[in-house]
Amino acid sequence: MKLNNKFFLKVVFFLALRCVTGLPVYAQGCSDAGFCTLPGLKPKTDTTTYTYTLKIGSNIGSADNNISVWGTYAEISARLHAKMQVHAKVSTLAQSGNGISVKGFSDVYLNVSYQVVPTLSFLVGSKVPLTNGNTSRNNVPLPMDYQASLGTWDVIAGLSYNLRQWQFMWAIQQPITQNKNSFSAEEYPATSALANFQTTNKYTRKGDMLLRIAYPVLVRKKIKVTPSLLSIYHIGNDTYQNEVGSNVVIANSQGLTVNATVFIDIPINKKSAFQLNGGVPFVVREARPDGLTRSYVLNLEYQVRF
User: How many domains would you assign to the chain?
Assistant: First the structure.
């Protein structure tokens, strides 16, 4: 693999440059509805067999409408036996922009992964919201861009398949409940930046499908770089309810988002490591009313196994 090292380092440099310069592109990114960073649906870089793995991490990103985002999370995995693991994750999110700053707990993720054969695993799980997606300011509802959670209870199912060095992941995340968001742009004066946001009163969000292709490369001693291509397809147009109580389809909210992501794993010792990952978009949905738009995402994670 040494012949490819320079190419993959160039990919990493390019992605870092895109993130730092903040080029005007937007994507659902890795701060999506949640499943692209779950164990089993992001590139597998750890081959150890410790019983427990604890991860804590923090991420920053640039969202739509001049909003900056900052998230944190804690995650624990437990190996029940050689083929089965259970995972739990809790996250927070803070947003700031247009004179508004909000923060709060986001979601709890619970899932189980099972290795059918050495090359094939599947997982099932759920996302449980810690807020109802209707944070307000001065008793006036805020748009989805300022919500710490989508406020939906989701089910998640996925598969992971390895073909030599290549890793393929597919998953679906489907809301089974909707949030309580009641934001209407008409409630804000024309001089307010929020008057130009998408109305999401009684917002109904469709599900997402994920396809990821990854290829890990050992570039220097034990440092591993894993570029991946992450595609997320929003499987239907979302809707909201207008002032007369009619459901309105949000045109072009269905569609495909394609992101380039890279993971860099740096071991400290046998039991702990750092992971840096980032993502930038190449293809986007035209309408993104859920507030998940990101022009870049950077994440730093510390892992300890015991």
Answer: 1
Question: Which amino acid is present at 86?
Answer: V
Q: Do 38 and 87 contact (CB within 8 A), yes or no?
A: yes
pLDDT, tens digit, 9 for 90 and up, residues 124-172: 999 999 999 999 999 999 999 999 999 999 999 999 999 999 999 999 9
Q: Which domain holds residue 271?
A: 2-305
> Could you tell me the two tokens for 35?
């499943």
- Cβ–Cβ < 8 Å for 277, 30: yes
CATH number (domain holding residue 110): 2.40.160.40
Alpha-carbon distance 289 to 14, whole Å? 29
Q: Tell me the whole-structure pTM to 2 decimals.
A: 0.88
